[in-house]
């Protein structure tokens, strides 16, 4: 395998879907939040992305069956909103800058083919004393202000590493709109609390209330 390639499971019919990204990173906040969204919307995998820039190991399940690392694209509809939810096993090495740009372009090309022009990325923001804060960065001042009005804190300086930040920047260059939601976390371990806060805030921005039964204890991975 010399280049990234997509494996199509089925072809969904989508109308102006929102692309939501949650990949491994600080505290695994983005990945866990994406899994919560997948569970909440009963999303189904419709495509997989494999790349030679992923780490050189395989994933082995409880039955001893292995598979290559991959990104998964899930789809679901909630109300009038179609979703494409991206999550996966790992990101390329931080030192492999070309791989990050290549993969992010592949992801955005794929999402555009399905009609996406709006993006939400999710991740963790390291801080020594997190208190369930949600930070936001955006492609426009208007979107940032609207998200702050809903309770987020403006992420006014610094960097957002990996796909969580780069996807947003490259999407803006393409004329997309989007936001990045960052949950405060120490980043020292998988932070389900921060992920649940990000998930709840995302649902709030979409006008959907999360039932109390859909708690953070339901997320196991």
Keywords, separated by commas or semicolons:
single chain, disordered C terminus, Rossmann fold, 28% strand, globular, 221 residues, nine-stranded mixed sheet, two-stranded antiparallel sheet, alpha/beta, 5 helices
Description:
The protein has five helices and eleven strands; from the N terminus they run ββαβββββαββαβαβα. The radius of gyration is 16 Å and the shape is globular. The strands form two sheets. Strands 1-3-6-7-2-8-11-9-10 form a nine-stranded mixed β-sheet, with helices on both faces. Strands 4-5 form a two-stranded antiparallel ribbon. The longest helix has 17 residues, at 97-113. It has helices at 29-41, 97-113, 141-149, 162-173, 192-205, and strands spanning 5-8, 18-22, 44-50, 59-60, 66-67, 71-78, 81-88, 118-126, 134-138, 153-154, 177-185. The chain is of the alpha/beta class. Strand 4 and strand 5 (66-67) form a beta hairpin. The chain has one domain: PAC-like subunit (Rossmann fold, 3-Layer(aba) Sandwich). Helix content is 29%, strand content 28%.
